[in-house]
């Protein structure tokens, strides 16, 4: 399974069956169904101004009351967050309320980060909301031997979602080669930026092999989401500067976590990592230790089974 992203890792860890969300009418006889609603496609700018007339391709799904059908055919239904909590703000008004109504039908809710739990708990004060940590199948990469070289990987491209511009500026403090993953939302002329090398599209296993060759990571992504970049860096002990509200960052890289707008502090951390060998070693060892403390598959299973027993 060379492309085991987080949602696949969850499925494997739970030994769960997988269905396409649109096939909900055929999901029957389960003790628990965890539904992940796709983000859908929106065509708005940051102010919410419509850029074209493309509809959210999942509008019909929300209208068709899938959770009610799932609850009719199965014992319990939970919702797992996909993307940032605020993503629905870019939906049409009708879609926002239809989405809300689907979550209201669920027996309980799961969120990427403790920070996100507050949002869902605010919407549904009488519903249980739990942190379901991000997960990677380390068994798939246990043969990868890290070979850190003097180069820096930033976590995403130069768009608002990933904050790649500020990551690039912070990464400049290391005065070495800077690389960025290829992404579906790469910007025009991004490949022309000085000292920024775009990696080819990679399956997850190949991505992890590439990542293991980097010495530093920077991910000033303002979007609060799954945080797999910080998690992957932690597994290899790569110090990563990033968003303090994301649990994989905050827990695995506590000495390098900042508000995503605090570029000044992030640059200070980068300068310190470069000049202070002991600080670098401390950040690296803490990352690996805290990965094992919070994010191994055994820890994940323990947490999830506690949730399921409570429900």
Description:
This protein has twelve helices and ten strands. It has 311 residues and is an alpha/beta fold. It folds into two domains: 6-135 and 297-310, no CATH class; 139-294, Rossmann fold (3-Layer(aba) Sandwich), CATH 3.40.50. β3 (108-111), α5 (114-123) and β4 (129-131) form a beta-alpha-beta unit. It is globular, with a radius of gyration of 20 Å.
And the CATH topology of the largest domain? Rossmann fold
Q: Can you summarize the main beta sheet?
A: 6 strands, parallel
User: Class by helix and strand content?
Assistant: alpha/beta
- Shape label: globular
Termini, distance in Å? 31 Å
The portion of residues assigned to helices is 25-40%
Element-level helix/strand string: HEHHEHEHEEHEEHEHEHEHHH
